[in-house]
């Protein structure tokens, strides 16, 4: 695993980055929730894709013990409380104290606590029925397998983990290469740019089905969905490929749902 920013650098970045600290009425910041592209529009599509998978597999939440990993300000913890009709047995963890303090102000009845995944989790094994690992793994650049295994051990047999994060596999890269050809870009230049982008993102590794299978052998993948929040316009090749081979859809993110079977 390529090593990127260390934990202290990540904390500094997320504490100061405008993408994660936009004001409640910050219309000028394109990453604010008030902005359509990176804010509520993105969250709306993300929620849609996540619940498409959960609904297809008929995952229920009544009486379930739920852990929201990387809860930020607690949006998804609130959604689970809404679905459960109460806040009991819902826990949200984040490595930023500011996020936890804000989440507590929004809903003090949910158990929000600061927790760094590089440290031992403060919960016994098999203590949750459902864990959401939402947009977190791309920040885990050291001991990533250990982090995933630790979270997996906290799921009871028959329970579930739902991953949402950057997605990458060979079909993803192939389609983007074809996109460069369709746009009449120099294929060598386009490939070089993609390679540079891949190197730049090595500190933010993507999630893949292969990784999940390898790290969590006692889990079974039961649900899968892809997401690209940016509207694709004028690329006929994508429409044709997606129609013939839906599994080759362009995706920047993926939702992967797994069930613990042993």
Quick overview of this protein structure:
The protein is of the alpha/beta class. The chain contains 9 helices and 7 strands, in the order ααβαβαββαβαααβαβ. The chain has a single domain (7-260), classed as Vaccinia Virus protein VP39 (Rossmann fold, 3-Layer(aba) Sandwich).
Give a written overview of the molecule:
With 262 residues, this protein is α/β, with parallel strands linked by helices. It has one domain: Rossmann fold (3-Layer(aba) Sandwich), CATH 3.40.50.150. Helix content is 38%, strand content 19%. It contains nine helices and seven strands, in the order ααβαβαββαβαααβαβ. The chain has helices spanning 7-16, 40-56, 75-84, 97-106, 144-153, 170-182, 187-200, 209-215, 236-244; strands at residues 66-69, 90-94, 111-114, 128-134, 155-166, 219-227, 253-260. Strands 3-2-1-4-5-7-6 form a seven-stranded mixed beta sheet, with helices on both faces.
| Number of structural domains | 1
Q: Widest sheet: strand order?
A: 3-2-1-4-5-7-6
**What portion of residues is helical?**
25-40%
Low-confidence residue ranges: 194-202
Under CATH, the topology can be stated as Rossmann fold
Global structural class: alpha/beta
Radius of gyration, taken over Cα atoms and rounded to an integer in Å = 19 Å
Q: Tell me the overall shape.
A: globular
């Amino acid at each position: 695993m390529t090593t990127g920013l260390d934990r202290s650098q990540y904390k500094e970045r997320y504490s100061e980055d405008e993408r994660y600290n936009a004001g409640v009425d910050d219309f000028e910041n394109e990453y604010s929730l008030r902005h359509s592209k990176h804010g509520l529009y993105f969250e709306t599509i993300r929620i849609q894709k996540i619940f498409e998978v959960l609904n297809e597999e008929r995952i229920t939440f009544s009486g379930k013990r739920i852990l929201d990993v990387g809860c930020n300000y607690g949006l998804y913890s609130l959604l689970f409380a809404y679905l459960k009709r109460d806040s009991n047995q819902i826990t949200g963890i984040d490595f930023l104290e500011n996020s936890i303090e804000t989440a507590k102000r929004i809903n003090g009845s949910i158990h929000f606590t600061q927790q760094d995944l590089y440290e031992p989790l403060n919960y016994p094994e098999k203590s949750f029925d459902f864990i959401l690992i939402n947009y977190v793994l791309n920040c885990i650049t050291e001991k990533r397998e250990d982090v995933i295994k630790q979270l997996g051990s906290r799921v009871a047999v028959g329970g579930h983990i739902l991953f949402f994060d950057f997605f990458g596999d060979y079909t993803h890269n192939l389609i983007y290469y074809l996109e460069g050809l369709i746009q009449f870009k120099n294929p060598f230049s386009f490939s070089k740019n993609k390679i540079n982008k891949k190197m730049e993102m090595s500190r933010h590794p993507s999630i893949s089905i292969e990784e999940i299978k390898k790290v969590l052998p006692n889990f079974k993948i039961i649900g899968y969905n892809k997401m690209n929040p940016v509207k694709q316009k004028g690329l006929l090749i994508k429409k044709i490929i997606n129609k013939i081979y839906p599994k080759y859809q362009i995706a920047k993110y993926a939702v992967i749902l797994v069930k613990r079977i042993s």
